[in-house]
Amino acid sequence: GAGVSQSPSNKVTEKGKDVELRCDPISGHTALYWYRQSLGQGLEFLIYFQGNSAPDKSGLPSDRFSAERTGGSVSTLTIQRTQQEDSAVYLCASRVGGQGAYEQYFGPGTRLTVT
Amino acid sequence: AQKVTQAQTEISVVEKEDVTLDCVYETRDTTYYLFWYKQPPSGELVFLIRRNSFDEQNEISGRYSWNFQKSTSSFNFTITASQVVDSAVYFCALSEDNQGGKLIFGQGTELSVKP
Hints:
The structure holds 2 protein chains of 2 kinds. Chain A is mostly beta strands. In chain A, 0% of the residues lie in helices and 48% in strands. In chain A, strand 4 (31-38) and strand 5 (42-50) form a beta hairpin. The radius of gyration of chain A is 13 Å and the shape is globular. Chain B is built from no helices and 12 strands. In chain B, the strands form 3 sheets. In chain B, strands 2, 5, 6, 10, 11 and 12 form a 6-stranded mixed beta sheet that branches. Chain B has a 4-stranded antiparallel beta sheet with strand order 3-9-8-7, with no helix packed on it. In chain B, strand 5 (32-39) and strand 6 (46-52) form a beta hairpin.
């Protein structure tokens, strides 16, 4: 079946602009995660959605970052007033529901470059 | 606090050698899950294995094997008879049962298998 898809695959933006990154999880997966991968910080958790519960936003680095998940499926990560330190690969992952017992499947990522 | 340490930043071997990637974790939870992911040069994270904290049985899958030892908080990964296609960055990760499944990653080990 189809895996996790993300768009765009690459995004170049000017400092100060807003960007939106999209994630389509695997059908039937109720849990969705966003991570960021950068050279200096490795792989970092950003935010987590599970069904209709309030999202866990504990990993968002600043209030410029936000995310939503519509209809329990597609998710959008928004970064406002981008800064150069936001340059990274943004990864989305999904898994079946429940606690942490199940593996996450990752999308190909969106490479964000802030100039 | 939870933490994953992969002390080996880079490993280089010649094809057909065996290689072990080390992973040490820290957690206060009694129920947790450990994972290994592979990130080939193409960039997409590929799930390899999941182990539950209450199951210390080692596992073998083809040329891959995993050694889970709670006494030393380690979850090491061995590739037998390495091949060039094994060249990738390998990540060890931890999730705790009461943290919604979010993954805490190690810094990764870059494995280079030379012909």
